[in-house]
């Protein structure tokens, strides 16, 4: 499965978009609200790239499974009896129903609609009242899966290069920033899902800059981390499709939130890997519609950490993300109402926003070029 092509380069004025971005202007407001642009982005940005699916520990034992979505498609990762981690579209080949729902374990993946059952390698094992179907090529359709740190990642193309091949500097960038990548160093504590009535690009604009942190996160993120509006991106590094930012702990006297560090790694598109003291966050923004984004955040605690401390940090981060969501929804409503033609980015503190939008523009260009010309 490959990226859906842009039908014509003329559909988007790519050179004009690039010039405006270089001058500090966002994409036109309509590009945050129109369904056809959203459909284009699913194909150009999300289909051909790896995305975070869920905790690796949930698929540690044979038969265990993990479900999620990639570019709007339901997927399932399952650990086989042979120890191999495999991925499939979570869609029954009979009548396109969901095969399994939620985390679980079992010898088969059994569809709840008509009872068709699939082995852990995706082959069809049984089809009630339809024995002739067993010999047909009705295995579950494969997708690519890989692991990094404490997480499972997925991509629609089962033949895609591995995660670290697609991002060859991922491990080096993370390790040089002092991030702990050893699987098993953390345990999964909780998943919190935030439904945002806003376009995914607005989520990204917000996620990579901290120009806003001192203003809307006064009792959350800004309480724990030293963030100056004019220098919020001073410790940022952009490499390929990775974006790294580091924040020092505020360590204010007497405050229960005594942070020592925070390292945030963005893996385009929409994945966050954050390590802060004894907490790890692995998260993914999942575009649902032009005006809807689901943000899934898995919280992990370092082995031996204080549970009460971990709970306080989860509460602080959840409040931070809720404040972000509220801000994004206001922005989206105003863009949808055509109150402005474009948004203006501030040179310096909002430079990361231009970088990320540049990656999206590159994805438009790549998807608009015929395969033979790439």
Textual characterization of the structure:
The relative contact order is 0.16. The model is unreliable at 1-10, 229-234 and 370-374 (pLDDT under 50). Helix content is 26%, strand content 27%. It is built from 9 helices and 17 strands. Strand 9 and strand 10 (151-155) form a beta hairpin. It has 2 domains: 51-163, 3-layer Sandwich (Rieske Iron-sulfur Protein), CATH 2.102.10.10; 167-353, Naphthalene 1,2-dioxygenase Alpha Subunit, Chain A, domain 1, CATH 3.90.380. Strands 1-10-9-4-3-2-5 form a 7-stranded antiparallel sheet, with no helix packed on it. It is an alpha+beta fold and 374 residues long.
- What do the pLDDT scores average to? 89
Write down the overall geometry.
Answer: globular
Strand content: 25-35%
Helical proportion, percent range: 25-40%
Question: How is the biggest beta sheet arranged?
Answer: 7 strands, antiparallel
Give the spatial strand order of the biggest sheet.
Answer: 1-10-9-4-3-2-5
Gross CATH architecture of the largest domain = Alpha-Beta Complex
> Spans of 5+ residues with little confidence (pLDDT < 50)?
1-10, 229-234, 370-374
Task: Describe how the helices and strands are arranged.
Elements lengths: L13 H9 L12 H12 L4 E5 L8 E7 L2 E7 L5 E5 L14 E2 L3 E2 L6 E2 L5 E3 L15 E7 L2 E5 L7 H4 L3 H7 L9 E11 L3 H8 L5 H4 L4 H4 L11 E4 L2 E7 L12 E7 L3 E6 L2 E11 L2 E11 L4 H30 L14 H18 L6
Antiparallel strand pairs: 1-10, 2-3, 2-5, 3-4, 4-9, 6-7, 7-8, 9-10, 11-17, 12-13, 13-14, 14-15, 15-16, 16-17
Helix pairs in contact: 1-9, 2-9, 5-8, 5-9
């Amino acid at each position: 499965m490959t990226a859906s092509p842009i039908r014509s380069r003329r559909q988007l004025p790519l050179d004009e978009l690039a010039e405006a971005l270089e001058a500090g202007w966002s994409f036109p407001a309509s590009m945050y609200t129109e369904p056809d642009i959203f459909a284009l982005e699913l194909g150009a940005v999300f289909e051909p790239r790896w995305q975070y699916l869920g905790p690796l520990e949930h698929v540690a034992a044979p038969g265990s499974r993990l479900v999620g979505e990639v570019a709007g498609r339901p997927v399932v990762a399952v650990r086989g009896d042979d120890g191999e981690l495999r991925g499939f579209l979570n869609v029954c080949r009979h009548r396109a129903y969901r095969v399994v729902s939620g985390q679980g374990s079992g010898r088969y993946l059994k569809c709840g609609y008509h009872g068709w059952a699939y082995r852990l390698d995706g082959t069809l094992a049984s089809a009630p009242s339809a024995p002739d179907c067993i010999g047909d090529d009705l295995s579950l359709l494969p997708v690519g899966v890989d692991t990094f740190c404490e997480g499972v990642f997925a991509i629609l193309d089962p033949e895609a290069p591995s995660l670290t091949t697609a991002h060859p500097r991922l491990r080096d960038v993370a390790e040089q920033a002092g991030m702990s990548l050893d699987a098993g160093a953390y345990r999964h504590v909780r998943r919190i899902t935030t439904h945002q009535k806003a376009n995914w690009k607005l989520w990204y604009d917000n996620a990579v800059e901290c120009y806003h942190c001192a203003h809307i996160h006064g009792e959350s993120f800004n309480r724990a981390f030293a963030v100056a509006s004019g220098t919020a991106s001073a410790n940022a590094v952009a490499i390929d499709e990775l974006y790294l930012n580091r924040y020092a702990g505020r360590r204010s006297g007497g405050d229960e939130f005594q942070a020592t560090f925070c390292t945030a790694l963005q893996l385009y598109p929409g994945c966050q890997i954050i390590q802060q003291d004894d907490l790890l966050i692995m998260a993914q923004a999942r575009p649902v519609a032009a005006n809807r984004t689901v943000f899934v955040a898995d919280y992990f605690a370092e082995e031996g950490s204080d549970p009460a401390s971990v709970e306080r940090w989860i509460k602080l981060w959840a409040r931070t993300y809720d404040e972000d969501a509220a801000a994004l929804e206001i922005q989206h409503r105003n863009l949808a109402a055509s109150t402005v033609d474009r948004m203006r980015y501030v040179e310096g503190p909002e430079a990361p926003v231009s970088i990320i939008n540049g990656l999206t523009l590159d994805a438009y260009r790549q998807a608009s070029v015929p395969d033979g010309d790439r």
